[in-house]
Amino acid sequence: MVRVLVVLMFSFSALTLKAQPCDPGDPDNPVPCPIDGGVSLLIAAGIGLGAKKAYDQKKKTEIRKY
Questions:
Q1: How far apart are CA 43 and CA 10, in angstroms?
Q2: Would you call 56 exposed, middle or buried from its count of C-beta atoms within 10 A (0-12, 13-18, 19+)?
Q3: Which of 3, 9, 44, 55 has the smallest C-beta neighbourhood within 10 Å, fewest atoms?
Q4: How far apart are the C-alpha atoms of 62 and 23, rounded to whole Å?
Q5: Which letter does DSSP use for residue 64 in this model?
Q6: Is 65 helix (H, G, I), strand (E, B) or coil?
Q7: 3-class secondary structure per residue, 2-63
Q8: Closest by alpha carbon to 19, among 7, 8, 30?
């Protein structure tokens, strides 16, 4: 359970990361660019892979019971 919470914490913290300012048009109010070079796709792929592995492990233990 702790592992799941740690993974979720890092996943959601990656969504709020910001890079350098995009356009220095207004130096008093710089707007940071979000870092999203496919990070959201990698997170989704990791969640999918983890779900598949958990499903396969559950299926494997159910077969061993009988």
A1: 10
A2: exposed
A3: 3
A4: 56
A5: H
A6: helix
A7: HHHHHHHHHHHHHCCCEEEECCCCCCCCCCEEECCCCHHHHHHHHHHHHHHHHHHHHHHHHH
A8: 30
Tell me the pTM: 0.44
Identify the segments of the chain with pLDDT beneath 70.
13-27, 29-37, 65-66
Token pair belonging to 10: 């890092």
Distance CA 56, CA 25 (A): 52
Q: Which two tokens stand for residue 36?
A: 């999203």
Q: Angle CA(9)–CA(12)–CA(15) in degrees, nearest 5?
A: 150
